[in-house]
Specification:
The chain contains 10 helices and no strands. The chain has helices spanning 2-16, 37-51, 54-68, 72-79, 81-100, 103-123, 128-146, 150-153, 159-187, 190-205.
């Protein structure tokens, strides 16, 4: 697949008369200090949002078994809903973002829904199937609307650097939060863990 994509890109460059690597202005790593404030806000949203999704999914199976008395098989099924729903919903939300724009509204809605899901899981005994299904929809909505916003605020010749830096910041945040989440579960339990994830969602909105 990678070889096919490379061949297609080279063929497109030949047809369009585009020179390899020609992106306009010279690119320097030091350009990151000139990225606009909006880019750093996008990075902040990225870190706090995904910090309340990926580490949660990593611990959710045991959480469902402990709080709801689920079997391992059932808990695993419920835990997989976010990714299963995302597989179908992400292209649909991508189309909606391309068709209607309004990225900020989609991001706000996704964060609000995700915050609500963590609140329900923390303070109620409503079947987690519902919360995880909604979280899958919200996760898809955010991915389809947040990442394209980088291209709206960063120059075209700096997009690779911007996306790479954003991915690096996200991974660093996930590594730190995974350690914090594990420590919270060991010392305080799952209620405090969900309160921590709710706090992450609140920080995302701010």
């Amino acid at each position: 697949s990678a070889l096919t994509a490379a061949w297609m890109d080279k063929r497109a460059a030949r047809i369009l008369g585009r020179k390899a690597g020609a992106v306009g202005d010279e690119v320097r790593f030091s350009d990151i200090k000139y990225f606009p404030t909006t880019f750093w806000l996008i990075c902040t949203v990225c870190v706090f949002y995904y910090a309340a999704v990926f580490p949660f999914i990593g611990l959710a199976q045991q959480f469902f078994q402990s709080k709801y008395g689920m079997s391992q098989e059932t808990a695993s099924t419920v835990n997989s809903l976010v990714y299963l729903i995302s597989a179908g919903a992400s292209p649909l939300f991508g189309f909606c973002v391309d068709r209607f724009g309004r990225n900020l509204y989609f991001v706000f809605t996704a964060v609000t829904l995700s915050w609500g899901c963590h609140t329900v899981l923390a303070y109620t005994f409503v079947n987690p199937f519902i919360a995880m299904s909604v979280l899958g929809v919200a996760y898809s909505m955010l991915a389809a609307s947040l990442w394209p916003m980088v291209a709206l605020v960063v120059k075209e010749n700096q997009l690779g650097t911007a996306y790479g830096f954003m991915q690096a910041v996200q991974n660093l945040g996930l590594a730190v939060v995974a350690l914090i989440a594990g420590s919270i579960v060991d010392d305080k339990g799952y209620l405090w863990l969900e309160m921590f994830f709710c706090a992450c969602m609140a920080a995302t909105l701010m």
